Amino acid sequence: RHSIIIDTDPGQDDALAILLALAHGDALDVLGITAVCGNISVRSTAANALKVLALAGREDVPVYLGAASPLVGGLVTAEELHGAAIMDGWDLPVSSAAPRPEFAADWLIETVLSKPAGTVTICALGPLTNIALAVAKCPEIACRVRELVLMGGASQGGNMNAVAEFNMFVDPHAAARVFSAPIRKTVVSLDVTSRLLLTEHELGRLTMGSGRLAQQVGKLLNLYRNSLMAGAPRALHDPAVIAWLLMPEIFSGRALNVEIETSPGFAYGQTIVDVNGVTGRPANAFWLTDADKGAFYALIGHALSKI
Ligand code: BDR
Ligand code: CA
Questions:
Q1: How far is the centre of ligand 2, averaged over its atoms, from the C-alpha of 280 (Å)?
Q2: Which of 36, 54, 133, 193 has the CB geometry, 3.0–4.6 Å to 237, for a possible disulfide?
């Protein structure tokens, strides 16, 4: 069983990723959730995480408050994409739990140090601020983590400017720190999630299940799908991180060098991916490029029917 920490800013697709992980308790042990600012303020992302746990009947999973702002500059949020409360469409229970008192990055460090080296995987579903703070405070954790699987970046067109993806754009300075740390990384970028677009066909398959969540999730994903980004269908980005842990065989990718653009300007937040290997810089990430869409949605549909 794989021990994981989910660092997240729920967020519709984050919520689904959390549910996907919890539905696979046989394979994944969710040690805790660290909330970060991103889609909305960190107080709200933590509150949303608690509600998603309540929905899954898993209020035993601890939630920690993390960074309230990026390392540099102010927070850019995504309310317009996910709804004002970021979880529009979800009929979420009120959670009786509260975030734990410890700061997310401190808990993350303690947890990674307390477990045998190479056993804890971090799933990063939002901006990398908490991870960068943890690595800055305790660089040893970089080598102790089994893997950091992160959603972010794009080599072929962004969703915030022409080249930058949201999670990287919100805190490129954090991303730059994380990409330069000696931590094993797998990147789920827009390159791969754009292969996982949520169309009517997938939606129909997801809502076929009789589980108590299937219908509700169907309703909200319909809303999510209709809040088109630039008129284009939307992808379920963050669940692909969890899918990578459960079914790596449905993905393809390759080891590449990735650097982050932190200078202000048109390319702010870009992941500069050396696809042709021209820089001579060593590979620092495993960059996913494709996924089996049918298998991915079957995995999510199955998870929903289990909860
Ligand atoms: C990422 O941005 C957020 O809005 C989503 O939750 C996802 O993590 C996609 O660019
Ligand atoms: Ca997210």
A1: 32
A2: 193
Q: CA of 120: how far to CAs of 85, 148, 260, in Å?
A: 31, 9, 25
Q: Are 125 and 8 in contact (CB under 8 A)?
A: yes
Pairwise CA distance, residues 175 & 127, whole Å:
8
Burial of residue 165 (CB within 10 Å: 0-12, 13-18, 19+) is buried
Q: What is the pLDDT of residues 61-107, one digit of tens each?
A: 999 999 999 999 888 888 766 555 566 666 777 888 999 999 999 99
How many CB atoms neighbour CB 40 within 10 A? 23
Distances (CA, A) of 95 to 46, 83, 256: 11, 20, 42
pTM of this structure = 0.94
Q: Is the CB of residue 238 below 6 angstroms from any atom belonging to ligand 1?
A: yes
Q: Can you give the pLDDT at residue 235? A: 84
What are the beta bridge partners of residue 5? 32, 122
Token pair listed for 78 = 């995504």
Q: Is ipTM beyond 0.95?
A: yes
**Cα-Cα end-to-end distance for the chain:** 19
191 lines ligand 1 (CB under 6 A): no
Contact by Cβ (8 Å): 129, 36: yes
Q: Which helix (H) or strand (E) holds 173?
A: helix 172-180
Ligand 1 atom with minimal separation from the 78 CA: 4
Question: From CA 181, how far away is CA 104, in angstroms rounded?
Answer: 19
* Ligand 1 contact via 11 beta carbon (within 6 Å): yes
Angle between helices 239-246 and 293-306 (to 10 degrees): 90
Q: Would the CB of 14 count as within 6 Å of ligand 1? A: yes
Distance 81 CA to ligand 1 centre (A): 9
* pLDDT tens sequence across 203-235: 777 777 666 677 677 766 766 666 655 455 678
Q: Which is it for strands 2-8 and 28-35: parallel, antiparallel or unpaired?
A: parallel
